[in-house]
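Task 17 of the worksheet. Students: predict the tertiary structure of the chain below and write it out as structure tokens. Keep your answer in the requested format; marks are given for formatting as well as content.
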Amino acid sequence: MKNQTLKFIGIFIILFCVSCEANADDKFDILSKDNLVAWCIVPFDAAKRTPEQRAAMLSQLGIKRCAYDWRAEHVPTFEQEILAYKKGGIEFFAFWSIHEEAFQLFEKHDLHPQIWYMMPQPISGLSPADSIKHTVAKMMPVVERTKAAGCQLGLYNHGGWAGQPENLVAVCNKFHQLGHSHLGIVYNFHHAHDRIEDWPATFNKLKPYLLCLNINGMNDGAQPKILSLGRGQHETAMLKVVVESDYQGPIGILDHRNERDAKDSLLENMNGLEAIRTQIKESNQK
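Model answer:
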């Protein structure tokens, strides 16, 4: 009886350890290919792909979601892009800014992408509280339009007052208090070089509101600003903070280089990210 009890205890310990190891591995899924979103691959693509070619490229790379950035020249092909993604099994995950024609197409095709939007900069000279109040009032039409469309609205950091995490969080919090819980934050490494040193604290503030985290190679002084993953000084440590948190949201990788083929940029980022993923996993097993 004693031996049988010891046997059961041994089996339990083995199963417990296996379970713990599996749970540890699960954390790294946020850096896996299945969790990636392609970003800045439309106007920045040196190959100038058509919607169909872009969908084919994403399928070849194994990327299942795309955040769609555009310029005026792309408006006539909005619907073509939507149809190409549908045919290729690519999720139309997010849409840059506001365009009424796009909203009409979202309704037609029953799509509800995230809308990525830069907050307006407040009038200079306002107090912090009045700056938040001014921004909330100015943004209300966009907030109501996205809510009516069933789309999450992601406040996008792009420098200045409107790009600071504390202000993004304050505006989100205010809108949530007003009953607009579809607001969140889309945070970009390439617009956050000033937050490298305090990244753990910054990420902790952002995390409750984070809809997507767009990552980038990170060097001191943004030299260069756009850098493939695995080639910078700080992105591995920054991503380790993310992996070890309970963040389970999407991760964006970007092209954002006019002179490069978007496929080459994405592939380079994917390879660099996989190396970082392995490095973080190995460091946690020591």
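Marker's comment: The longest strand covers residues 91-96. Confidence is low (pLDDT under 50) at residues 8-24.
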